[in-house]
Amino acid sequence: MGTVKLLTDAEVEGIPAANEVFDDIRATRKSDFINNFWRGLANDPPLLRRTWEGLKAVMAVEGALDPLTREMIYIAVSTANGCSYCVHSHTAAAKARGMTEAQHAELIAVIGLAGQTNHLVTAMQIPVDEEFLV
Which intervals hold domain Carboxymuconolactone decarboxylase-like (predicted)? Predict the structure, then answer.
């Protein structure tokens, strides 16, 4: 159960600043669907706007990383941070962008291996090799 109310479209329509962001989300994503994350953030319109603008600036622009790669990175970071909601939402987004079952399986293998080796090197406090310092 959440700690904030998930605002309905009718409630958001009564909050012009939040409604404007919802309209931009719909236009940017070319979808009428507004997920629960944004509905929760709508309780604080300035935070909603900042978060949406930040997400758009990284995830919804042309860049050196293709959209699928960005989503897969988001899944990995969300896994590391223990954010089940984000793992689910960005896995759905990655699949919508063409992630195959084989790619998903490899991603999970990489995430699992990285988590294991990160913990081992942290536990052993292995010094960084001179050659790796950039």
Answer: 46-126
Q: How confident is the model at residue 78 (pLDDT cuts 50, 70, 90)?
A: very high
How many structural domains does the chain have? 2
Residues 60 and 71: beta-carbon distance below 8 Å: no
Same domain, 39 and 83: no
Residues 50 and 121: their CA atoms lie apart, in Å, by 36
Specify whether 95 is located in the same domain as 134: yes
Tell me: do 16 and 37 sit in the same domain: yes
Tell me if 85 sits within 8 A of 37, measured CB to CB.
yes
- What value does the mean pLDDT take over residues 4-20? 98
The most distant pair of C-alpha atoms in the chain lies apart, rounded to whole Å, by 59
Among 48, 47, 52, 51, residue whose Cα is nearest residue 25: 52
User: Structure pTM?
Assistant: 0.92
Residues spanned by the domain of 37: 1-61
Residue 95's pLDDT band, with cuts at 50, 70 and 90, is: very high
Cα separation of 83 and 62, whole Å?
Answer: 26
